[in-house]
Amino acid sequence: MEKPKNIEIRSEEIQDILGSVPSRIVRIGIGIVFCIIIFVISGTWFFKYPDIIQAKITLYTKTPPVALQAKSNGMITSLFVSENQQINKNHVVAIIENTANYNDIQILKEILDTLNYTQEFRIQRKLELGELQSAYTSFLRLCKDYMCFIKIDYHQNQIHSINSHITDQITYFNILQNQKEIKIQELNLAKEQYERDKNLFNQGIYSKLDFEQSQKKYLQEKLSYNDTESSLANIKMQINQLKHKISELNLQHLKEKQTQEIILNESIENLKSLIKNWEMKFVLKSPINGEITLTKIWSKNQNINTGETVATIIPTDNSNIIGRLEIPTTGIGKVKINQPVNIKLDNFPYMEFGLLRGTISNISLIPSSINGNTIYTAELNIPDSLISNYGEHLKFNQKMTGIAEILTDDTRLLERLLHPLKMIYHKN
């Protein structure tokens, strides 16, 4: 079989190109292109920048404004403040219509705080306490019972009577003790006489009748002495019994006094709790020091509904300003504590007034839902002076809003270019 002939597959022009050595200019051009490619690739490694995550921000002080909300429906019967007035903590702002008299409630509070069990409890006039009246009536009855117990003092009267009896018994005991000394002497004399008469009887000098009379007298003196001893022992036993009775009466008095005081204290604590609940429902108090802004009412005799904000207390201390961030879930994993944040306030256009800067100090561990959106909350530290990057001093107002730009950790450009390839590689 005839071998195939070699076929010429390259044209004459191609052969000229492949066969010729590149000129110096071409080699330099290739080198420059290669250097540019190396420079660009190197630049993608050294050039890095952060992602920016935007979030809503609201500025507060460390102590935020407090809204006073009505806990019941009704008319404002008393208003004790005026617009923009400086007030202190626990200052009474307003009273909502109810069946109790506010001044009488204050009198009752003072009574409960200063009640002294050692003094007689007196009320000068009837108090109008509304829904607290029943508990107050029970308290008065318990006070009366306790004062009667202290005034009658049954146990102490019994103890006083027993002490008098003990004193009489001791006096009688001392008398018998003296008689005992005499009885001892009489008994000794009778015994000596008996011994003498016994010797005379044995010698036949004394008759039996005379001896028996002497013996009888001795026995009578001995019996009398023993009776005295028995009486002394009996009196000692009675005194001890009376002293034991006093101890029992003291214990009974203490127990009954403690029981009545416990019951009375329970009544006092119950009244204090009822007063606290009454104040929560009908008395609007400021929980902090600050400046009050009336939002729903401006004079008494206006109606208010449960849950409505009657006034807002603005803290006077504007130091320690913080920001509350609402961060979307997208990219939240890149947000870390101490990352810098640029703040653009709605009140101060940033192109005119500049930006504020802060750092993230805290991030919530779980998301929350606000207006149907799932977000994470974070806290931001902001310089107290509120000086922008333009050098402008921005005036602080509570609840100022704006946009926060969170600057995440820097990422190299090369890494960003490789992310799609990395995703494709791991996907396959």
UniProtKB/TrEMBL annotation:
It comes from the Bacteria. Pfam families: Beta-barrel_AprE. The chain crosses the membrane at residues 25-47. Keywords: Coiled coil, Membrane, Transmembrane, Transmembrane helix. This is AprE-like beta-barrel domain-containing protein. GO terms for cellular component: membrane. InterPro entries: Beta-barrel_AprE, MFP. Residues 225-259 form a coiled coil. It is found in: Membrane. The keyword Transmembrane helix applies. It is a single-pass membrane protein. Signal peptide: none annotated. Its main location: membrane. It comes from Labilibaculum filiforme.
